[in-house]
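Reading group handout, session on sequence-to-structure problems. Before we discuss, look at one worked example. The prompt was deliberately terse, the way you'd type it at a terminal:

> structure ASCH domain-containing protein

The input record follows.
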Amino acid sequence: MKYLNVLFFNVLFFFGFIALQLIIQIPIVMLIKNLSEPWFSLIYAGKKTIEIRLHKGHFGELKLNDTIEFFNDDLGLRRKFCIKVLNIEMFDTFEELLSKHLSQALPTVKTIENGVKILRKIYSQEDELKYKVAAIHVERISAVVNEDLK
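And the output record:
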C-alpha cells in the first residue's frame, strides 16, 4: 500500500508540474545544445533567425513548436536561453539554403561561398549529401540566464 501511495504521489506531482508549465507558459525544453559564438549572441539578439543543422539525430526529430535550450560557456560562465521552432525547411545543400536565407542564417557573412566555408569546418560534404540540410526557423522565448561554472 505504501508503494501505491508513493507511486500515486509521483504521478500526481508529474502531471501537476506539466499542467503548471502549460498554465504559466514555462517552456518545456525538448533539446539542450551548445552553441558557439558569435551564433549564440546573434540568435539571442534576434539577428540570426535560422539555425543550420544536418537533418539527423535530435535535429532530424524536431517538430514545430519544439523548444531548444542553447547554452554557451565561452566566457567562463554558462549562459543559456530557450528558442521555439517556428518552421523547418529542408534543402539538399548548404549552397541551396544560403542562396535563400544567407542573411537570416549567417548574418555576419557576406557571401554564400564564405558561408559554405564556415559550415565545412563543422560538417563534411559527405554528411551534407547523406543527411540533407535543415533550416530551422527560430524565435527566442526566454532571456539569458547566467550560471557560474565554478
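Points for discussion. First: Residues 28-148 form a domain with the Archaeosine Trna-guanine Transglycosylase; Chain: A, domain 4 fold (CATH 2.30.130.30). Second: The first helix runs from residue 2 to 24.
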